[in-house]
Amino acid sequence: MDSQPPLPEMHQPPPSASAAVIDDAAYFRQNEARRLTDLVTSSQSRPLHVHSIRIDGITHTRSTLVEQLVSPILQSETLGDVIAESREACQRLNRLGVFRDVAVTLDTPPRGVEAGGAAGVGRELVDVVLTVKEGPRFYARTGADFSNYDTTTNITTKISNALGGGEYLEANASYAVQPGVALNESAAAFASETGSYFQLLASKPLLPTPRFRRANRADPEARIEVAAYNTNRNAQLHQSHDEQTKGLAVRYKTADPYYGNHEFAYDVAWRHLHNIAADASGSIRKDAGHTLKSALSHSFTRDHRDDPMLPTQGTYVRVREELAGLGGDVQFAKGEAEGQYIRNLGHGFTLSSTLRAGLLMPLPNSTKPIRVNDRFVLGGPNSVRGFAQSGVGPVDKKDSLGGTAYYALGLSLFAPLPRLADKPIKAHFFANAGSLLPSTISTSTTIATPTPTTPATQFSTLLSSPPSVSAGVGLAVRFSILRLELNYCLPLVARAGDRMAGGLQFGVGVSYM
Amino acid sequence: MPWVNPSTKLQNALPLKTHPAVFVPAAWPAEPAGVPILYIFPPSKQAITSVDAECVKYQAFLAFSNYKHTIQECHEPGMSPSGQLPFLIASDGRILTGRQIVEEVKNTAGDLESRLTDVERADLTSFTLLAETKLDFALLFTLWYDNRIRDTVTFPMYEALYPWPLNKILSRQIRAEKTEWMLSRKSVLKRDEILSDAKQALAALSTLLGSQLFFFGSKASFLDAVVFSYLHVILSQLALPGADVPLREAVMRHDNLVQYCRRVFNTFFALT
Amino acid sequence: MSALDNPGDAAAFELFTWGPAYNLPSFDPFCLASIAYLQWSEVRWMVNECNNAAVSPRGELPMLRDGLLEPVVGTAKIIAHLKKKGHDLDQHLSATQVAECLAYTSLVEEKLYEALLFSWWLEAQNVMKSTRPTIAKSLRGWAGMRIPTQLQQKAEARLKKYRKVAYKGKETNEIYVLAREWYAALANKLGNQQYFFGDRPSSLDAVVFGHLALHCIPSLAEPTLFSILTFEFPTLHAYCDRLRTELFTAPLRQSPNHRPSYILTDMLRSPLTYARSLLDKLSGSVTVPAKEMKPKERRDQLVTIGSTVGAIAVFLGYVFYNGIVEIDTGEWQDGEKHNEE
Fold it and tell me: Ranges for the Metaxin glutathione S-transferase domain (chain C) (predicted)?
């Protein structure tokens, strides 16, 4: 077998490879690399078989798992197969989230090994050597975020590869410190809820058995997660209560960049609405107390936008359904959908259109009311601009009650600013409309009991009720983790009771309408 | 001419069109009568009086004063502004708890205690507090720390209100809260001491009542409401078949108190 | 009036109390009530201002030691014990009056005591300028730093249900509104009499004096109770002053067993007691909530504690055993900790 020329070394560059500085030696290396690549490409169909796979550098990861992920390489029959399967295997190992660096080397088998097998004499053999470097197992991060006039501090600790199979254990806690009183009117108009949040999460990847000559994309990776969480949400500003939630959730998630991500979850949550403000309305007061929600939910997201923060092209779909009622004393069926279509009009202009809708129905034969913490809210700088946070929809005294059916439309035109065409800041012209219907509350003085309706009647009522409309102009600035908007809003049509926030409105966040 | 901010002028002109509100909340209490509503802890089946002594207290006081009202059941003390049941919604929508209910009733339906002398009024205050501290303590202790009562009366009462497994967690949580409250008042909780305190209080009340109709003559007062509430709850809730509960036995020993309790119940709460 | 000096008489009662303040023998109203009762009953007795609740089996003061018998703790029990021994101030009361005595005693001990606690521990000005310095001075030494904090915490827990209300146009705490009602009840009961039940003192007078004497202190930073008493209930104020002069014309007989408590002498004399008082989370007239625990509950508690500690130990053991967190005792290698590019 010595007559064969030595096979070239293949090296999968680590993801964080930095650009090389161009100089003579580097130019020579680039040239050589290109020649090698051409050589390899032209000999794709050359018959080649794998003698063995060796994996170096595994300390904590289960070797059976790694072997399972790289086993299709063994079935290779040509050089092309070897290269393709090795690349797929490296992708799978990287996706495990455990390794910091994965490198593949092809080597000749040690002298004295005869090619055997049904093909007879002349079978070339190659050894595949995978060199991996495991990442750090313990990870801790603390941070402080300033947003919406309050300060949130958070801390996350994560143990990776806890049991050797790509599982991780994560604990994160976040505390919001809110100033005792809203700094001024505009701050109060858009300060969101604050509180504290603590979650303990255990996650395990469910890896499909890799198959020979089958791209990884065809079997999206899945994870199963078990989480326990404790949240304290302060909703005194707009809803005059505090909510404490303690819960357990089991989630099954699949992720595919092309076809979208699914998440199926079962969640048991103990919610406690307490600290009702002294001047709270009767509708909020009637919802005080303990409830147990046991719910199945499914959520689907597909994001094909080129940039989630300030997109110029693409589509975005998100659908979520939830069925609460297996045990517990909360029974409803909830569905929510959002679609976004963005079109590049050329010369830096972008037109973005969004539609959101949601419906919340009590289950048939159920007499349990739907409480304020399950209902939808509408309005604010991230949904219908020009209105205060939760400012659209049913209101009782000074509390936003939320509703059970809504739709919202948004149309935005982003234009480049003169002389700033290449910066991530754009002029923004928008028109938003939305309508939120209340849950059907009977006039008795007991806790609200929903009267039976069908989804069709709810939707027809929704469409026939006049929406709240606003329009305006402003600026949108894109940062790597969020988008900032500053708009001058004109609430054009409103319902009596809507809390308008005309004039300058400031928005911070990731998802906008 | 003062310069008006053009933005303010523009905003004042908006919105161009206002549609009627999407939701009009129902009046609380309901129109048109506006009858005040008293929210109490749910009574046991077929009973009118609540199982919670504090709620019975105010039910009785409203009944004595002939204050027109309706009753609504509510098992969530968080609904009340003070965190405790009962609470009253007056006809103009104010939510009142505790002493505010007494004042409201006195203002609207007349003062039951107007004809008492100063000394009698002083006695009213002190004996009311005697009952509210000693008897309430003994009742709380029996409800939550007497194992038979706890398992047959108290826990089932709370567990019926919530779904499993929340009811188990909540009943234990309520017990912990009550224990903490009791410990903030008395440093050591000893069954015998609490019981002997209650017995002394019952003896004092029995002496004060004597053979009268009510504690201060022939008309009822707030003290009657208080004493009746504790006696009624002790006699009706702590009735176990078989073995006798010490607190209930202590009450049974005072004949005039038992007769008094029965008489008040029959006059004001019996179903006709 | 007070017991004559009779050195070496060990047959006297010995009352262990909290120390003096505000020109009164004790700053604790329950101790003061017991002192008043003993003075009126004209027995031979001596006071031991021990300032240390650990001497009593229940961790509470006042405590009465009668010869070699088991000590009696708590004002109610002390009064009952003295009555059994034949020093009964309530002999002249009728049955109704006995009932009234019980009712008014509980009014004072439960409710007016809360008003006192509020004024002393929940009014910020008072806490900083009056209560803490006075009690610390009376206690002396280590306890003067530790005990006021505990008393304050206990008071806050007990009084958190009192909220602010509007009274006569001003916003005040509802406990002062209620205190006026309670004072009114006492004033109406007292009327023009010398004592509550005629012209001989009773146990109710001892209790009322013990508490009201401490309400009538003008030198507080915010003497709300004092001003209420002086301006709205002058009969009660006059009653307190009269009884104070009546009871304490001569100084009280001090117990020879009393030794002032300093940190070092405490530690040297009885290390165990000192250590125990250090470990007591609460002491004084508020004590460890050693409620009666059934064996099953004690076992449950031990199981809970044991399983929590065990779970934490298992978690830490797992972390260290698997090298997730390593305690590096080696030397710093040059460049080892830099990121590899």
Answer: 180-243
Nearest by Cα to A494 from A405, A407, A393: A393
Q: Which residues of A touch B81 (CB under 8 A)?
A: 276, 278
Query: B252 Cβ partners below 8 Å, 6+ apart?
Result: B235, B258
Tell me the C-alpha distance between A382 and B244, whole Å. Answer: 65
CA distances (Å), C64 to each of A376, C14, C260, in order?
Answer: 67, 6, 19
Both structure tokens of C121:
């521990």
Domains defined for chain B, CATH in brackets: 120-268 (1.20.1050.10)
Residue A138's contacts (CB-CB under 8 Å, 6 or more residues apart) are A157, A158, A159, A160, C324, C325
- Chain A within 8 Å of C316 (Cβ-Cβ)? no
All residues of chain C having their beta carbon less than 8 Å from the beta carbon of residue B123 are 100, 103, 185, 189
Taking the CB of residue A352, how many other CB atoms lie within 10 A of it? 24
Q: What is the tens place of the pLDDT at every residue in C47-83?
A: 888 877 777 877 788 888 888 788 888 888 899 888 8
Q: Which amino acid is at B94?
A: R
CATH placement of domain C3-88+251-260: 3.40.30.10
Is A194's pLDDT higher than 70? no
> Which among B123, B187, B191 has the least Cβ separation from residue C287?
B187
Return the amino acid letter for C322: N
Are B184 and C154 an interchain contact pair (Cβ–Cβ within 8 Å)? yes
B126, B179, B189 ranked by CB distance to C103: nearest: B126
For A176-182, which contacts have Cβ atoms below 8 Å and span 24 or more sequence positions? A176/A150, A176/A151, A176/A152, A176/A234, A177/A150, A177/A151, A177/A152, A177/A153, A178/A150, A178/A234, A179/A149, A179/A150, A182/A149, A182/A237
Task: Please report the number of interchain residue pairs, chain A to chain C, with beta-carbon separation below 8 angstroms.
Answer: 9
φ, ψ for residue A364 (rounded to 5)?
-60, 145
Contact assignment for A493 to B18 by CB distance below 8 Å: yes
B191 vs C contacts (CB less than 8 Å): 292
**B neighbour chains, 3+ CB pairs within 8 Å:** A, C
pLDDT, chain A, mean: 82
Give chain A positions within 8 Å (CB) of C325: 138
Contact between chains at A495 and B21 (C-beta distance less than 8 A): yes
Interface ipTM:
0.86
CB-count exposure of residue B190 (10 Å: 0-12, 13-18, 19+): middle
Q: Quick check: helix, strand or coil at residue A433?
A: strand
Q: How do residues B115-147 score in pLDDT, each as one tens digit?
A: 888 888 899 999 999 999 999 999 999 999 888
CB contact under 8 A, B190 and C292: yes
- Residue A346: pLDDT band by 50, 70, 90 thresholds? confident
Does C327 touch chain A if contact means CB atoms closer than 8 Å? no
Nearest CA in chain A to C323: A137
Radius of gyration of chain C (CA): 26
Of the candidates C74, C89, C84, the residue with the CA atom closest to the CA atom of residue C38? C89
Compare all CA atoms of chain C with the CA of B179 and give the residue at the minimum distance: C291
Residue pair A247/A267 in contact by the 8 Å Cβ criterion? yes
Question: Domain locations in chain C?
Answer: 3-88+251-260, 95-247, 268-340
Closest CA relative to residue B206, chosen from B264, B265, B260, B125:
B260
Closest by Cα among A136, A162, A158, A139 to A61: A162
- Measure B21 CA to nearest chain A CA, in Å: 4
Cα–Cα nearest to C118, from C175, C196, C166, C62: C175
| CATH class of the region C95-247 | mainly alpha
Task: Identify which of C43, C60, C44 has the alpha carbon closest to the alpha carbon of residue C52.
Answer: C60
Q: What are phi and psi of B257, to 5 degrees?
A: -70, -40
Pairing mode, if any, of strands C63-66 and C72-73? antiparallel
Chain C residues with beta carbon closer than 8 angstroms to that of B118: 188
